[in-house]
Amino acid sequence: MNQKKAERAVKVFNDARAQASRDYIGSVPEATVSLDFARAFAPIVQYTPFMNEFLNYVVNKLVFQTVESKMYENKFAMLRREGFPLGTDYENNYINPALPRAYGIELGDTLLNRKKPDVKTQYFRRNREDQFWITIPEPLLRGAYTQWEQLDDFITGAIRSLYSGNAIKEQHLVKTLFVDGVTQNIVRTQTIAGYDETGDAAGSANLLIKAIRGLTYNFTFPSSDFNNWLAYAQAQGIQDDRPAITWVENNDILAFIRTSALVNAQVDSLAAAFNLNEGDFRSRVIPVDSFSYQNNEGETVSNDKLIAIVCDRKAFEYRDNFTQASDFFNAAGLYRNHYLTVFQTYGINVCANSVALLAP
User: Fold this and answer.
1) Among 8, 121, 276, 303, fewest CB within 10 Å belongs to which?
2) Average confidence score pLDDT of the chain
3) Going by DSSP bridges, is the β-strand pair 354-358/306-312 parallel, antiparallel, or unpaired?
4) In the structure, what pLDDT confidence band is assigned to residue 142 with cuts at 50, 70 and 90?
5) Widest CA span of the chain, in angstroms?
């Protein structure tokens, strides 16, 4: 017997019992690892309302306690921002640094004049509404468990199926932001002359590190060279607007690097580009398997020239709008559907520094 699995399943079983109705508690015994599984679980599989209570706890409550250890982790989760559960639109405002004026004694006459701040406004609209679901036939459920370890496998599998699917979709949508951001001129670009990782892997890695080092240095100075507000403003019909002046603290700079390029780079050299030790820099340099995604037609959209994106951690973002786990038992078909519904908003902040590094 796998002791660890058995102990984990017994804990879940007893936690569900503690949260259940009086009838459930009176009929279902408190479990121990040594208690015969069939005896403990028999009242649940023999009475549908008890099965409903048990699975309601497993899918709707337990998942939030165990999700971190049970599911695939979105590699770009650091881009998740505070959600907004009400409404479908989000307004992002950036206030430009104020400009000076020459001092003169006559300025006393302007005491009651007003000077509006230069506010750059960008709107995001909810653009993801997905539902994940799995079906568990009741006869299978009743006959599946003969040991505590099997119950643990079921719980782990159900959670992984729903929540891993969501994490993978989140990661996919962030990669969509990366690729489309470059293609649609939302993200600034910089071509690395001479870069050829297939012909000169070591030399190309040095060129990449040099480019990243230059950006991490320059990002910390106020500038309009690394955000794309003006292009966005012109696309919105705003003409002759003042550029957005932005900068980034060094510890807020991230680099998303294609794995085929990252494997050629020396870790210590790359860490030095961020002024970090090798251990700390791993949370700031994020591998990307490929800058590609599948569109709604199932076609692969990719940018093979895209090597890396160096950015403010606020440049790419996604926010939760609504998340709900629920289930439904079909008595006629003797099966149970479990659902995970997720609404989110994804977008690129054009008033944050971001530069895509491209091969020639």
Assistant:
1) 121
2) 85
3) antiparallel
4) low
5) 92
